[in-house]
Amino acid sequence: MDRQRVGVVGAGIYGYNHLKAFSTCEEAELCAVCDLNPELRAKVEAEFGVHTYESVDEMIEQEHLDAVTVATPDCYHKDPALSAIRHGIPVLIEKPLATTLQDAREIIAEAKKYNVRVAVDYHKRWDPASIAIKNRLADPKCGAPIRGYMSMDDIIDVPTKWFKWSNNSSPVHFLGTHCYDLIRWYMGCEVTQVYAVGHKGYLSSLGADTLDSATAILTFENGCTWTVENSWILPDGFSKNNDGRTQIITEHELLRVDSQYRGVEIYNEQKYGTPNYVFMQEFNGRAIGFGYNPMYDFLRCLRTGEPFLADTTDGIEAEKIAEAVHESIETGKTVTIEREKSE
Ligand SMILES: NC(=O)c1ccc[n+]([C@@H]2O[C@H](COP(=O)([O-])OP(=O)(O)OC[C@H]3O[C@@H](n4cnc5c(N)ncnc54)[C@H](O)[C@@H]3O)[C@@H](O)[C@H]2O)c1
Predict the structure, then answer these.
(1) Average pLDDT for 299-313
(2) CATH architecture of the domain with residue range 124-275+318-336
């Protein structure tokens, strides 16, 4: 099997996972990495032995790539994605597809014009717990879903220390879109109405001009209502970088998921930790876990022609919900999500 030549744009915290995936998997040859940061480029060259570039266009023109992945900050996915698309190269874009509907629509329009396939990395769909819920909801014994709750919260280090760009994102874009995507996938239908409230002030007082927390009530076409809570202000002392819960009441069952406690506990002098070993780890020279599987599936779908599990339709639907959540928080009103026939 010929290895697919892959280039990665963005070698920060999450882009590093792309580098690990493509440098250890049999389907790929990690050929090149593009990042604006010269220190990161030097580090990546030393660790992975790849060519690095400051310009996406130059990387694509020099490297004869079969695929590009984009792991730039939430609000800067569009330009690298458009570079790849305009060179006719398929792209995997980190979630969220974009932080505005306008950017999302531009990516989709160019992908259509250049007939290029675009996947979106909504990796929670690959979590074995999510797959179990998806399969359970599809079983007629479960009955129709009536009400759901999902939370996903990050520690405060994420907006204050990990990123310089949290002012240009929000817990809605960074975390909420994961939830909106997963719930759409569970429900198999779209959101029609959104009402949301939010809290701002604590992070602003620390210099990050972004929401602390958002609570959204989503009404789906099947009549099921969901409450979704997202914040990025959990204390640093929390046993993991994030917390997450799901509860679904159906006609005949109650389904619950604890995404925080995965069964492994580590104690040391400083901290009690509950790491998520099903997400990402290295074993036998391979990067394994559900966090890497969307990257491997992207290459597999390119080779086989199968549809992506999460594509630009999923990307834009999550973004419509995110925009509606922000609008509802700002106006205090319920927002109806309109869909054009072509969307
Ligand atoms: N950190 C996480 O836990 C996590 C988890 C899942 C998904 N993601 C997603 O991955 C994406 C990247 O997040 P991150 O945590 O790696 O951020 P990060 O800030 O650590 O890294 C972003 C990198 O992109 C580079 N960059 C910015 N604009 C660029 C451009 N035009 N061309 C080339 N390089 C550019 C920056 O120099 C930086 O190194 C985000 O969309 C995020 O939502 C992050």
Answers:
(1) 98
(2) 2-Layer Sandwich (3.30)
